[in-house]
Specification:
With 107 residues, the chain is an alpha+beta fold. 40% of the residues lie in helices and 11% in strands. The protein has one domain. It has a two-stranded antiparallel ribbon.
């Protein structure tokens, strides 16, 4: 999970107006109840554009959880902002969620 408590709180404030039940908590981290998943598509510009459009729509609508297709490496969002890339790379030092925490998300 590449998120900070502060970043998730700022995002939640930015999409104010959604019902409180839309966001769940894992400790102090607020995550959306809906996420965006992907699956392997054709390696072409039209498919890439479709994924970008879907991601933009989901994030604007209040989704702050996403996962790529198995075996796909995710490019860092906001790659043109060096500070954003540095922040994401620093977060990579944290281990992924364990089974107990993932199951807590599904409740």
């Amino acid at each position: 999970m590449l998120a900070t408590v502060q970043g998730a709180a700022k995002y939640r404030a930015r999409v104010a107006g959604l019902p409180d039940v839309h966001f769940r908590s894992i400790g102090d981290l607020g995550i959306s109840s809906l996420g965006l998943g992907s699956y392997l598509g054709k390696p072409d510009d039209d498919t890439d554009a479709g994924y970008r459009d879907s991601a933009r729509a989901a994030f604007r609508a209040g989704c702050n959880v996403s996962t790529p297709a198995p075996g796909v490496t995710v490019a860092l969002c906001g790659m043109s902002r060096l500070d954003h890339v540095a922040e994401n790379l620093a977060l990579c030092r944290f281990p992924p969620l364990g089974v107990t925490d993932v199951r807590a998300l599904m409740r």
